[in-house]
Every structure is written in structure tokens, then in C-alpha cells.
Amino acid sequence: MPDAIAFYLAGLPAFVLYFGAGMLLLALFGLIYVTLTPHKKWQLIRANVPAAALAFGGSLLGFALPLAGAMRESVSLLDFLFWAMVALLVQLLTFGLLRLLIPDLGRRIGDNEMASAILVALVSVAVGVLNAAAMKG
Description:
Belongs to the UPF0719 family. The chain is mainly α.
């Protein structure tokens, strides 16, 4: 039994490293996303505007999916970081494209228009799923 415990504990440093890097990247994405989007997400969320929480949460999930895929498929931490940056860029471009299609998207979310928030959330998740699937080791 001690050999089995030692075997599992041997993977703990890699888990801590990748999980910690993943959490930092998720926070970085959230910070960049909040900074680049036209509406004040945290202010809206604190004011109990569900559309803001839904759009932001969907965007976070849309980034976390390929981040998890990159973590699973990467051969090194540097490889993981490279693919994480690709995922980050793809999600930011996705929101930019949505803003082109719906020019007043930020106002709509700020006005708690759920259709706009649902669109942002689901498109972000859909793109995240495709992004994750496209990452091959």
C-alpha cells in the first residue's frame, strides 16, 4: 500500500503546477475580458444584473474548456501556456465578432437583456468546445 500512495503522490507537484497555472490563466482571462468589454461587469453583477453574470460566466466557461483541453494534451508547461494563449485570443476574438454583429451588445447586457447574454454565453461555450477539440497533442 505505501508504494501505491507514493505513486499517486509523485504526480502531486505536476497537478499543483498545472492547476495553479490554469487558475492564474483563468483569472488573467477574466481580467482582460472585463477590461476590454464595454460594460462594467462587476458593477452590474453586484447590482444583481443576471445578464452580466450569464455573459461573463459563459465567457469564462468558454475559455476554461480549451484551457482544460490544453492541459490534458500538452507535453510541457510551455506547450500548455502556448495553447492557453491561443484559447484566450480565440475567446476575445469571439466577443469582438459578436460586438460587430450586435453593435450595442454592451448596452443590451447592461440593460439586462437576457437574449444578448444567452447568445454571448452559448457562443462562447460553443467556440470553446471547438477550440478544445482542435487542440491535438
